[in-house]
Amino acid sequence: ILGDTVAPVLNYVYPLPESVGVPVDSGIVINGTDVGSGVDFNDIEFRINGSASTVVPIGDPHNFFLRFDPEQNWQYEDSIHVFCLVRDLSGNKDSLDYWFRTELAPPPPRFFDISPAPGAEEVALDAIISFKVIAYCVEVDESSISINGEPPTRIDPLPGGGYYCEYDPENPFNWNETVTVNLSAADLCSPPQQSDSTYYFTMVRDAVNPYFQNLVPQPYDMAAPTDSIIFFTIADDLSGVDPNSVTISVSSRNETIENSIPVIVSDFSPDSIRFKFQSGQDYDYNDTVEVRLIAGDMAGNEDTLHYEFYTSEFSPGDVEPPWFEELIPDSNTIDVDRDSGISFMVVDDLSGIKTSEIKISITTNSWEVTDVAPDSIHQLGEKNVRCFYQPETEFGWGDTISVTLKAADLENNNATLSYSFYTAPDTIPPELTPVYPVGEQTGVPVDSSIFIRGTEIGVGVDEANIALLINGIEVEPEIIIHDLMNFEIHFARETGWEYGEIIEVQCIVSDLANNDTTLNYSFEVEKDLTGPFFTNFNPEVDETHIEFDSSIYFTVYDDKSDVDENSVRISVQSRNLQVFDQIPELIERYKPDSLRFKFDPDFTFDWTDTVVVTVEANDLASPPNWDDSTYTFFTIRDSIPPVLTAFYPVDGAVDVPVDAGIIIHGTDIGRGCDIT
After folding, report:
1. Domain of 20: which CATH number?
2. 122, 205 in Cβ contact below 8 A?
3. Which tens digits make up the pLDDT trace of 245-274?
């Protein structure tokens, strides 16, 4: 027999060799046939771009398909080289070696309506970057959107697809800053298409130099004191003064000082700072003092001022006012304690302080004092004093305290300083404490009242915002406000609590600063452990001479949980007849805890009968309490003797036959004759 010498045959199915525009999600399918021994599926060599890959054979070894599905989509615009070799069981082989090219990549996402616009100038410092982004293939991948590597602070979907985005930086931009913005986004194609856009804009420019004002001694002053201290204010109306840029150079007859750093006296705001400089020694009389001031702003603009002043031939005296230092609390301080005092230092380096002229005025949201003297004044040196003032009334919560300080030196040069600071807002909610019943208390009497005590250390309790809920239902409690800081909440249910009831209490209170607090607790009312009792029996207990057809009456009473009228039963036993667990008739309802019943037996009693009555009932407690009562009464006694009558022969009869018998007739209307 000849061997199998016919090789398998492989045919292209999809994609065809040298195909272009093949979708990136395509798989590869090759058809194969073998008319001989059949293809060995375990000896298939398949390579993609030179890398061994696994194909899935479908069909039988004589007629089959080879399918390859990549784990991920192909890349766009990529050349894919395919090599496939198969052998049959006789060693004959065939192979395919070809390529195809994937489809062109779709356009990546596009950015538009960008603000500030690329290349924009004079952009405001508080600008928010905004833009829109859309995609052409599928939707934009929201998670891929970034601005300089950070996600937008706001993303809103656009009608029809895409997103509107905003980016509000935590720190504002700087004057004269050139801002580089890199926008990045990808779509949801597979593989995704990435788009990056880099552009620039320029912030508002501060090209104006800072300026100098309020110079002491004034430029070209002809009679400055020899012990003059140089004061000056630097102001900048745009980006603000850079205090670290300020230097002063002073040249006089006795010394030359270059680029010294002056002392900040008052930081009124970033736009205006007051400095002072004191030379290491007094100037000579009739001296020329040359001054050079250099200052910059936060935008890097710098200005220089050259001037000079001249000392007097003889000292003219003190013409400079004192000034204030070391303010406690300092200007614009926040979260100041409400009981804080005010401390400050008054300084005058010439004639000294006139302490009697030191005054303080305070204005708050609720009170004010005007031109009062400090509580204490301590002389710290020859020409400065430390002052302290403790207001009689505490500041309010979240209060704005405006302070004005006044002082004068011994030459009657006056100084005034006004500033403000702020107390902390009230963020502390009221406190609630259950006084009675306390939380989880058991055995609480049914007539108890709820008593809750409240304290408020802030602005005070808001009486209109006190709510009390009992078992989830809002009730109207009695509210007693002792003052804004102490209050009480009382509640008593008109009908009292139910025995064994679990009472859930929720109390919600707000203060005048809208701080809320909620108190939740529960207590258990005393349990009803006693059953009903029975009274007003008719016939009465041990009563005698009761008629045979008498009805039985009784009253069931329960002073706690009330009587369960459906549970009342009666049993009656007499000499000849008895019934058990009968339902009596309710004939009168005095109130829920007192019910009157009647029972008519279906039989009549006997003479001199002993009747035993048992009544029983439950109350409405949970679980219910059961009780019963048994008593006896006695029917009419049989005291009438039988009656005998001569029936035959009658009394006084004559001529009675000798063989006649005697018949006597007897009757008894009571229990009957004992014929034994």
Report:
1. 2.60.40.3780
2. yes
3. 999 999 998 889 999 999 888 776 778 899
